[in-house]
Automatic annotation (TrEMBL):
Listed InterPro entries: DUF5641 (IPR040676), Integrase_cat-core (IPR001584), Integrase_H2C2 (IPR041588)
Species, as recorded: Allacma fusca
Source taxonomy: Eukaryota, Metazoa, Ecdysozoa, Arthropoda, Hexapoda
Signal sequence segment: none
Annotated protein name in UniProt: Integrase catalytic domain-containing protein
PANTHER family documented for this protein: GAG-LIKE PROTEIN (PTHR47331:SF1), PHD-TYPE DOMAIN-CONTAINING PROTEIN (PTHR47331)
One Gene Ontology term from the biological process aspect of the record: DNA integration
Transmembrane annotation, as ranges: none
Domain Integrase catalytic: from-to ranges: 320-514
Amino acid sequence: MNTVKDSMGLDFQDYYAWTDSKVVLYWIYSNKRWNTFVANLVSAIHEYGQHIKWYHIPGTQNPADIVSRGMKLEELRRNDLWWYGPQLLKNAIPNLDFNEAVPERALEEEKKEQPICSFTTTFTKDLSLLDRFSSLTALCRVTAYVYRFVDRCKRKVKQRRQIPVPDPSEFLQAEELNRALKTWIKLVQLHSFKEEIYSITKGCTVSANSPIKTLTPFLDEEKILRVGGRLQRAQISIDQRHPMLLPRSHTFTSLVVRGEHERLLHAGPQAVIASLTRRFWIVRMRDAVRKVTGKCVTCVRLRGESVQQMMGNLPSARVNPVRPFLRVGVDYAGPFEMRVLKGRGQKHYKGYICLFICFVTRAVHLELVSSLTSEGFIATLKRFASRRGKPEVIFSDNGTNFVGANRELKDLWELSKSSAERESVAFHLSKEGISWRFSPPGAPNFGGLWEAGVKSVKFHLKSVIGDTALDYEEMSTVLSQVEACLNSRPLCAMSTDPADLVALTPSHFLIGDVITAIPEADYSTLPTNHLSRWQLSQKLVQHFWKRWSSEHLTRLQQRPKWWATKPNLKLGDLALVKEEQRSPLKWRLGRVQELHPGEDGLVRVVTLRVADGVLKRPCSKLCYLPLDTDDSTQDISESASVSN
């Protein structure tokens, strides 16, 4: 009221004010001490309205009530109360002293505590709704149904207003799905290309630091950011001439790429890129497509690529000089067809070859075995130890015959400890016991030394006997000759210089010369004392070991493959167990339960929990399954390759 008085320059002695609230009038005229809020309001009224006289008027005669309640324009034009005021003001001001009783409860201050809420709307890394969908089709269908619901609500309003509206179809139409797709494209573009869209809207060019500056982007009539390019005159579709822009690292982009990848029946990255460019332009498209296709579980299962890890260091048993066959690896080869005796009509049976290879000198020892039983291997081991010396450590794979032999040796050890008649045997076993070490199941690369020896043995046998069935005596003779050939192989590459020394071979450590060499003359009749001959032999042995350290050992320094360090598998990772007898789609799924890192901290063997138990397998026999939520494991799947 003071504002109106000051703006209009009014200066009256008395001012009259009416209100339809009896409670407010009691607050003004009462001398009661009110609460702080009411007291401040009443004090302000008394301070700024000293010459104002307050009266009561019914709400039906108060023009201000029209403003608070609202009224249609047609009714307002005919409303005399708004244009002329209440009827009582047309006459002289009556005596309107307010003296009606008001309940005490109504005079109390009504306090309503209203919480103050503040909202901050910001763009997160990904639109949260996109994380709930794994398929672009599902996302578009849900969005289309939301649009249909909104349109149906609007349709009911139009129908009430008698506006003709066509009925929607029962099934989603292509136009509805396309509308939903373009809605998400605009949201994603607004999130990822906000500065570019703002510059284009203002009529400016995009920033020089923008990743799409070379594409001459523009906004079409639907406010979708498209590639301008240089193909305006090409007679192709609008989507191919001006494809829609999408960012590289976005959940929606991954849904688009995954949908196209599945539509093309899990085609490769090149085919997916060729199909996507007909409608979309993804920044760094090749990287985005490779990232999605590399995480496709179906493609990972079909490729069957194994997890790789850097080749481990050589064990101490291979790099420290000891006597030959003190540390050996053992493996079987075969079966080979053999016959009982010479002549026609003799029965045939299967024979096997047991190979012992020295870890230091790579010398080979071959034994003919008639069966793959633990008893047969123990007998073979006794023959080997009698001729080459008892080994300290034996390395082998997890063959059932080897595991059984290890158990029987342990049983023999327990029996000899408890038998009083065999104290000498117990003493011998305790003095010269054999330590047995097994490689992980299904890991032939852990036994590459003896696997290569078996390959060489098979090559020589096939070259000599072919398909001929030999008897036991003939086969033993052939194996002795093959053993001599293998032990005469050079350990290092041979030089073409005639002044160089003779190539170092495993037989130099066994007999001091090449086994297959031509015999030299007998110098035993020369007048040389025994001590000088012994010193000469020791000098030769030391010379061989020196050459072994300088020539052969240095060759083992390089890693022929698997030279890069790869990310380790982690606890809880999912992997497929490769099984040669099954197709990749039927490989068992396992979860990593335990890690077995090497001395360098790299994991090459893990224990997995599968549906029917627990397995211990090397990483080379596992096919890692990537997860969409874990980007750090992408390098594992991309670096995996099939191992031999």
